[in-house]
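Section 3.1: Structural characterization of target chains.
Under the original work plan, the team committed to producing a structural model for every single-chain target entering the pipeline before any wet-lab resources were allocated. The record below documents one such target. The sequence was received from the expression subgroup and is listed exactly as submitted; it comprises 336 residues.
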Amino acid sequence: MADDLQIDILPPDEIYGSTSYTITVRVTNTSSEQIDGVSVEPIVLAGQLLIADSGPEESTAQKLESEKRRLVSELERQVERAHERNRFRQLSFVDRVIYNYARIVEVYASLFTGGRARVGIPSWAHEALRIQEWADVERLEDDIVSNEREESFLRKAFMINKDKLQRCLSKLSEANDQNEPNEELSSGDSLPVGASLSYASSVRAPHQFRAQDVNLEFRLNYRTTTDDAVTTRSVSRKVTVRTSAFAVPTASMIGAAAGYGIRSTLAASANGAISFNWWHLGGSVLLGLVFALFTARRPGGKQAIAVEDFVGGFIIGALTGLFSQEVLERLGSVLK
């Protein structure tokens, strides 16, 4: 059975923390018979799953299956958003302040990556918010989406998608010559002999202060025409998630402040007078940011000096803070 399918995990060449990337799982039928019910589900990812979709569409039934998956995926995202809004409304004023402070890292990271700050659902609630049958749609609507106001656009969008999904299931039953709609929403694809299907997943990488190796794992379910039993296989691949774009500049600014503090302390010890100046501190921090932006590792970049992670950025910043006055004087003499 292990030779029925060839499974390839195709990650991007480089994955950076706090960014969105797409990983593709390609499934090829290497057996001598058609394989049905093919589905691929991400189990372990380097980050948070945003969208999972399947490959090419050929027949009308396959197009309807693809439409069904898109609707289910969008319904799940709408439920996540409704859950987040409901949770925020139930917080007290103090809890809301704490909650907003907890999102500062998300918002700060999005400034460097160009993405939108996103707060995911708890890890212990992923299965609870998944939609696999029509009953799940009804239950999630009653328990979560119904808490939204009647005029809420989120609630209206959910109801529109629900109606579309119901019509899509009716069309699928007609295309498959079924007497009544199939309420199973997680049925797989058919894969003829020698054919391939690609399943793409859009993922938001976690915040990384240093490069880290992560194992990606996917679960594949399928059944052959001769055996109606469902076969499950797991495949994995190791990838490296590089440092987030905000890590080096942030570390460099912190290091510059620390370096300037050390310089001021040493000067005060030698002269017996405090030499701390807020303007000089601000200049050191900005100088550290400039050096970090020049030396931070960039995708495909060929820099003479490349800073890889938070520690490297802190060292660059600390050196900048220690010698900021000399650097500024040197720059001033060059500009004159």
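The beta strands are 5-10, 15-16, 20-29, 35-44, 48-53, 189-191, 196-204, 212-224, 231-242.
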